[in-house]
Amino acid sequence: MAFRYLEHTADIGIAARGESKEQVIEEICLAFTNLIYDSEKVKSQEFRELIIDSRTNAGKIVDLLSKILYLIDGEDFLIKEVKVKNFKPLVVIVGGELMNPLQHKMKSMVKAVTHYKAYFRKKGSTYLARVYLDI
């Protein structure tokens, strides 16, 4: 996998990398969802389009993950796959299904996605992104 978890007091961070802007966004989203629930048991039965129009690249990551957190907490929608359709504005298609407590096991609770030390940049031929979560 092209991501790792970063330890922090009362927070946890996710750092992701990819060969393209799209790939690093997809990786950080999947790392985020996998932190909250066991994504292996989720099926892509429904697809939703998320549009993010943030001014900065780091803001795009924070806002996208915040929308995904709302889908999980507010609509009980669990995500299995993420596909970036466009970068400016950021348009992402997520596939998943409604949570079934008998089938899906939650692993941890995320309160918020923060701008603290968030970044999205290119280093050489690799794209890097990092975000911290309030848990």
TrEMBL record:
Highest taxon above the source species: Bacteria
UniProt keyword annotation of Protease present: no
A biological-process GO annotation: tRNA processing
Molecular function GO labels: metal ion binding
Domain Archease: 3-135
InterPro entries per UniProt: Archease, Archease_dom, Archease_dom_sf
Keywords: Calcium, Metal-binding, tRNA processing
Similarity comment: family membership: Belongs to the archease family.
Name of this protein: Protein archease
